[in-house]
Design goal:
Elements (H helix, E strand, L loop, with lengths): L1 H21 L31 E5 L11 E6 L2 E5 L1 E3 L2 E6 L7 E8 L4 E5 L3 E2 L5 E2 L10 E3 L2
Parallel strand pairs: 1-9
Antiparallel strand pairs: 1-5, 2-3, 2-6, 4-5, 6-7, 6-8, 7-10
Length: 145
Amino acid sequence: MLLERNCKILALCSLFLVALVGCKDKEPENPYVNPGTTENPQWKITVDTTDMTSSMTAIVRVSFTQSEGTLAAFMGNECCGIGEYTEGLYWLYISPASEQSNVQLKFYSPDLKRIFVAGDTFPYVNHGHQGSVNNPATPTWIVAQ
């Protein structure tokens, strides 16, 4: 009786181990391996740019991106700045949105066909400046789409 019980326990343990070894977690899709399907969002500034402004000098580092993309600043859903790319740096002027909130950066990569969102936001400061030529702001990016 005891031998039969131990054999059943051993058989169940063996089945559990086989199931455990055979069960692999599916790796999350690496956004850098397969390009996405997002077309260029063609962001347009939707706020008044004649009033106050702030500026940023930034470098965008996204793995496997070979050509420059589009860097834009947002406050909520309002686009408040589009960066100009020159010699490896983005120059960005930011105007305040109707409801001032933190500035969120977004980057569109035409190589990867994906939109990336900066992991951190920063407060809008009138006539403020983020980064410099010698020490550009370097956001950390999260895949959004």
